[in-house]
Structures are given as structure tokens and as C-alpha cells.
């Protein structure tokens, strides 16, 4: 498999990976303009813009956009995260130029028809309502806000309803002007792709755009805090975040190995002790998430309101115990899970294309898989234990609780138990 990278004169980047034996390809554009790029008054507009991408261009109606791809058996979609917005399609190899042209059309020629804006506003408000009715979704928004208070990184991707209600055509167009420069875009493609042909097409479609420059996002500050929402539910939902490395920090691999060993699968410590041995919950997990300059190790569980204090105590105990007796077997298993997940995931061209885009965004290059695997293999038991000790006792924390949680431990009490 061959990775090739090219940058146009205006800063537009193209990265491709040819995967022999495939008859299909994934092609898309990743824009470094997610929710974190929004001002407070714009909260939710990156996601709104993503929705509007498929609602009509100067040359295609919403139906024609869908038909252009689906008539050839393809698939087109988009998503918004806190640091990127992506627009991508999966098609057969002969239809890659078509997919590229359609994706470029929705980015370069949106009409933002007022009628379509109103229709999509209703769709997004329904999406927000659905998220609020899903406890194990909304609790992570509250956790993010508690971790990064008063910052773009702490605000919800969907935006609050009152902001979404007010966005109009001018707001959407202004965000595109501010954030969608060619130097903020990455064209990534994987599978049955021809790099030279894509470069030529990208030059024709995007080469005329003037670079706009882009100010770096303000540095994130993990503030920590508590977000408690008491409601009559069957379960009490508990989410704890602890400040961890960002994805440009070499320690991110240690954080990821630790989170897998602690709560990444059925053999993990939290699953075995709290679910299997104690029967206190159905779901419990830990994960290490990362951004450009910060990160969070997150632990989530759902249990009854009466059992939540015991679950919290046991969680802290397991975190502290990991600093003393995390074994070589556990670390080796976590490393193996990470490597297998990475390699299995990259068997699809869509996953490959996403990795290409993210690596170019993060590093400006695409590291060999062997380099990433070597970094995972380099994580030692001593390193995991040291990280576990720092995380369990010293790392700033944020807490979110939802459901019958009026008598649940608060962040002050939780931190006191960590320090004991």
C-alpha cells in the first residue's frame, strides 16, 4: 500500500493510499473547523452547516445530490466533531471522479435556501431533543462542559436550541468564509484511487481558492468541576473525566494502554471487579480521548441510585490499585487489543481515508503503521503504573451525574477519596 501526499499552491492538501485488490474507494474532505472553531454566539453552527451541505447547491437540488451518488451504488455522508467536519463518499473505483466532484460541489456551491434552512433547523432540534432523552449521550456533553468550562472545547457540538433557533443564511455563509479556506482542507482518499488523477481534479476544483490563513484555537484549560442533574430514571449515570495527554503528546500511548487495561473490555479491571464480581452495573468502561493540546481519560457506568456510592468507591480503588500492581500480562493484553483494533479497523478504505486525514492534520505527515505499533509496544508496565498513580491521585477531575443522584458523592468527596 502506497501513501502519497501533495499540497497545492494555496495550501490545499491531498493525501491518498492505494489499496491493491479493492474495487471501491473512499474519498472525502476533512475541514479543520469543528465545534471548537466556533465563537460562543456560533455554538452549533458547524454542525448546522454540515446538515446544510446536502440541501442543495447552485447546480444540484438535495435530491440530485443524493441521486448522483446512489445512482452508481455509492454512499455519501458527513459528520462534525469538536476539531473537524468531514464530508465523504464511498463509491466504486470508476466513480471516484464523480464522488470528488459532488463533494466539492456541496462545499463550494451551497445555496443555503431559506426554506431548506427552516426544514433542517427542525431536524436538528429533533436531534438535540433525542440526545437529551438519551442519558448515556447527554451526560458526556455535561462532562465536557464541566471539564472545559467557558471554552469552545467544553460546548456541545449540536449547540443549544436557542442558538440553533437563531441561525440564518448569513450566519452560515459567514462561518464558511471564516473557516473553510483551502489551507484548512484535506482531501483524503483510500482504496482503488489514482493519486495523480485526484491531484489534477483537486487543482481544477480547488486550485483557484485564495488561502485565508487560520488562527490557532486558544489553548484548552482543563478546569474541572461537577455537573449534577437529578431526574427520576431507572439508572444513575456516572461519568468521570481526568486530565490526560493530547494526541501530540508522546504519553498518549501510555494513556491509551492504561484505559484499555482499566476498562476497555470484558477482561479489564473495572468490568471484572464491578460488573462480574459485584454485579453493580451492566455497562462500565474507560477510554482515553485526545485533542490537539489536551485530553481526557473518561470512566462511565450506569447503576442504581442506591448502588452508585459503592460503585464510585470501587472505581477509585481500582484506579489506585493499578498504580501498585498493574501486571505485565494486563499491559500486554491491552497493547494487543490496541494493535488489533488499529489494524482491523484499517481494512476498510473509509477508515484508511479518515486516518490519512487525521494524521496530516495532526502531524503534517502519515506515519507508517509500523511506527505507531512500535510506540504502542514501547509502553512499559512501569510507565503504565506511573501514569495510573498520577491519574488516580493528582490529575484534575470533572464529574457528571444524571438520574437518581441527589445523594451521590460529589466531586469534593470523590477527590478526597482519591487523595486518601
Question: Can you describe this structure?
Answer:
A hairpin with a 4-residue loop joins strand 9 and strand 10. The termini are far apart. The longest helix is centred in the N-terminal third of the chain and has 19 residues. 46% of the residues lie in helices and 19% in strands. It is an alpha+beta fold and 420 residues long.
Q: Given the structure, what is the number of helices?
A: 16
Number of beta strands: 11
Helix-strand topology string: EEEHHEEHHHHHEHEEHHEEHHHHHEH
Largest sheet, if any?
6 strands, mixed
Q: Gap between N and C termini, in Å?
A: 52 Å
Strand order of the largest sheet: 1-2-6-3-5-4
Structural class by helix and strand composition: alpha+beta
Question: What is the CA-atom radius of gyration, in angstroms?
Answer: 23 Å
* Overall body shape: globular
Helical percentage: 40-55%
- The poorly predicted ranges are none
TL;DR of this structure?
The chain is an alpha+beta fold and 420 residues long.
Which SSEs are present, and which pair or pack?
Layout: E1 2-7, E2 13-18, E3 24-31, H1 45-52, H2 62-70, E4 75-80, E5 85-92, H3 96-108, H4 114-132, H5 135-147, H6 161-166, H7 169-179, E6 185-191, H8 195-206, E7 225-230, E8 236-244, H9 252-263, H10 269-277, E9 283-290, E10 295-303, H11 308-325, H12 328-345, H13 349-363, H14 369-377, H15 381-393, E11 397-403, H16 411-419
Parallel strand pairs: 2-6, 7-11
Antiparallel strand pairs: 1-2, 3-5, 3-6, 4-5, 8-10, 8-11, 9-10
Helix pairs in contact: 1-7, 3-8, 9-12, 9-15, 10-11, 11-15
